[in-house]
Specification:
471 residues, alpha/beta, Threonyl-tRNA Synthetase, Chain A, domain 2, 2 domains, ten-stranded mixed sheet, 15 helices, 44% helix, P-loop_NTPase, Transfer protein traSA
């Protein structure tokens, strides 16, 4: 009996020793892998042992009160420092470190040399309110393409809504995982700047992108098209642009020109257009009037280019006496497809000249279109920048942007009707897309714009804006 008891006690002691050794090994491993967290825990434990739990509790309460006061008084700075640090720490431990090996193994992203199995290494994690940004070191034999193929599996493995990847340098990947979508909330209309000096002509804000940063368009260097089905929110582009450059219009640095085939959208702000620079509501023989306006703009553009050629000017910048001529076309389809052929052929010729030669002279076209198919949107390739909102099919998306746009991430056919203004645009110089949402412009926002631009003693007269270009 005694032999049995001593044997059982010996086995228990050996088991306890093994468990203690495992615990020590785990703690040492964690201390090496996570020195800052381990050091913080060690300092906290030592502080409690040295100061006692009562004084430690008082210090903890004081720190909590100070942080709460900081958050209330200056929420932005608190979120940028304490909020970012705690969010990053928690996501790194709970979402990624805890299940990194299991997820990547299940996705088939391991390598094996002889009997050694290796996984990509998680180098760093940085969390924002919406995204987690990971730096991942690939193993020898791995490439970006393998990760892209398994992107959906990785996204679902880490329970993210979207995933984006790009190669930072050889064998190092930047992986972004969306944990919360900032575009589900309605985006307010662009604010009217306080002055002309606040306008960046190459980055005019019209909404926010999926990272929560301002989404901008350039009014220099090329024309912009915007495609979307009925109710997708295309008009938000032109209204947000007009609001964001309103001081420039008031100061005579921008000459807006409106072509309104639907007789509805731009007519709400007819007062901001000079006489002869708007066709639409109440315009007799609209197709011929549109053609006459475009041909006049082509003549003015030619004269401006000739003048710049004589003076050696190559890059246009809005300035007094040479305003930016912003041509807003609320719907391109009638001009290119549905009006009488004899008229639309000439319109297409005039538009082609403006799209190919207008950049250097400051004649920029913003064209909206509902049906961007190849037989309708014949001038697509002349628009340097293209935006697409909700569209019915993948083929419409590729017709609006570029061939294989869906392969680059433009999922316009998946945008729900409940999210007007949601868009995809091609990222300049890369085979990838930008996802963003236009600001929602209400009737009150349009009325505010019109009131702001109502001629007064401090506003350049509309006719004067037109005459400075014609001169």
């Amino acid at each position: 009996m005694l032999n049995f008891l001593f044997s059982a006690l010996g086995k228990l002691l050996v088991w306890l020793a093994k468990q203690l050794a495992k615990l020590i090994a785990l703690l040492v491993t964690q201390a090496v892998l996570h020195p800052r967290s381990s050091a913080s825990a060690g300092v906290a434990a030592a502080g409690v042992a040295w100061l006692g739990w009562q004084l430690s509790l008082v210090i903890l309460g004081g720190a909590f009160t100070a942080l709460s006061t900081w958050k209330t008084a200056h929420p932005a700075s608190f979120a940028a420092t304490v909020g970012t640090w705690t969010r990053t720490w928690w996501h790194k431990w709970w979402i990624y470190r805890r299940q990194w090996n299991a997820v990547l193994t299940a996705c088939g992203l391991s390598t094996q040399v002889k009997q050694v199995v290796a996984l990509p290494k998680l180098r760093s994690v940085r969390s924002t309110p919406y995204w987690d940004h990971l730096v991942v070191e690939m193993q020898l034999g791995q490439a970006l393409g393998g990760f892209v193929k398994m992107s959906d599996e990785l996204r679902l493995g880490f329970k993210a809504q979207r995933i984006l990847m790009k190669e930072a340098r050889p064998r190092l990947l930047n992986v972004a995982l969306m944990q919360r979508d900032p575009l589900l909330e309605t985006v307010p209309a662009s604010a009217i700047p306080a002055s002309v000096e606040a306008i960046n002509w190459r980055a005019v804000p019209v909404g926010i992108d999926e990272f929560g940063d301002p989404y901008t368009v350039s009014l220099l260097g090329g024309c912009t098209s915007c495609a979307g089905t009925m109710g997708a929110g295309k008009a938000g582009l032109e209204w947000n642009i007009l609001r964001a450059i309103a001081p420039g219009i008031a100061a005579g640095l921008v000459r807006p020109v409106g072509i309104d085939p639907k007789l509805k959208e731009l007519s709400q702000a007819r007062q901001i257009f000079a006489d002869g620079d708007y066709v639409g509501l109440d315009t007799p023989d609209l197709p011929d009037a549109t053609l006459a306006l475009l041909e006049r703009l082509v003549e003015e553009m030619g004269a401006a280019n000739a003048q710049d050629g004589a003076t050696g000017e190559r890059d246009f910048t809005p300035r007094p006496g040479r305003p930016l001529t912003l041509i807003l076309i609320d719907e391109l389809a009638p001009l290119l497809k549905y009006w009488p052929r004899r008229t639309r052929d000439k319109i297409e010729d005039a538009l082609g000249l403006l799209l190919t030669q207008g950049r250097a002279a400051g004649f920029i076209v913003i064209g909206l279109i509902q049906e961007p198919t190849k037989d309708v949107f014949t001038l697509r390739d002349l628009f340097a920048r293209r935006i697409a909102l909700r569209l019915p099919t993948e083929s419409h998306t590729e017709a609006a942007l570029i061939e294989k746009a869906t392969d680059y991430g433009a999922a316009c056919h998946t945008i729900p009707e409940s999210l007007p203004g949601l868009l995809f645009s091609l990222q300049e110089g890369a085979r990838s897309t930008v996802r963003a949402r236009l600001g929602y412009v209400t009737n009150q926002d349009i009325a505010e714009l019109v009131d702001y631009l109502t001629p007064s003693a401090t506003v350049v007269d509309l006719a004067e804006r037109k005459n400075t270009v014609a001169a």
